[in-house]
Description:
Elements: E1 6-11, H1 18-31, E2 36-43, H2 52-60, E3 64-70, H3 77-84, H4 91-104, E4 107-115, H5 127-134, E5 138-144, H6 150-163, E6 168-176, H7 182-192, E7 198-203, H8 211-221
Parallel strand pairs: 1-4, 1-5, 2-3, 2-4, 5-6, 6-7
Helix pairs in contact: 1-2, 1-8, 4-5
Binding site for Mg(2+): 19, 52, 111
Subunit structure: Homodimer.
Organism: Paenarthrobacter aromaticivorans
Amino acid sequence: MKLPRIxxxxxxxxxxxxxxxxxxxxTALQQRGCSVAVYKPCQSGNVDGDSDxxxxxRLAGPLTAEAGIVLEQPLAPVPAAACDExxxxxxxxxxxxxxxxxxxxxxxxxxxAGGVLVELDHDGGTLADLGSLLGDSAGFAVVARPSLxxxxxxxxTLEALxxxxxxxxxxxxxSWPAVPGAVERSNRATISGWPVPLLGAIRHEAAALAxxxxxxxxxxxxxxxxx
Length: 227
């Protein structure tokens, strides 16, 4: 499938590598001559200095990157907002901003919070619902672990998107080890045989690379990303 203007980057769980995948994808697209914006609807963990937008800019280089709301505690958006005693923006507000960014950039990468069904507002709206609001201009990239258990988690995420009629660009394996074992090799081979494309695998500890080295290597990790 052709790469959509808006790519929603979701994960099979938290900590699977969504931010690093977003940075690698942003890098690869910029190297193709595309202008890229990154949007994070809900950023949690500010009290610990967490900023996925800042990390993407550090690794990928200068680009537009912004969060819809920044929350202090490292929790899912709804409980984090309760701790901060703030009201989360509605999905329609996020969709409006994403469309505005899409009008001035070739691609907008939208990084979710945790998995695809984590609630982003007080009405139960999820990243899947945000994808529905954005319509035909949006598609999902699913980031998964390469380790044991990933086949079930990845299949459940893909099933949730398919049941909602939401297009999937492909799957990315996060934290691919330098020396993959039998489990990782088997999981990669299995996912490669699924109807949804395998876009690539992000090198383990890619975030520890110097930004220059990250930018040099990023496109090679995502060799399956369509034009």
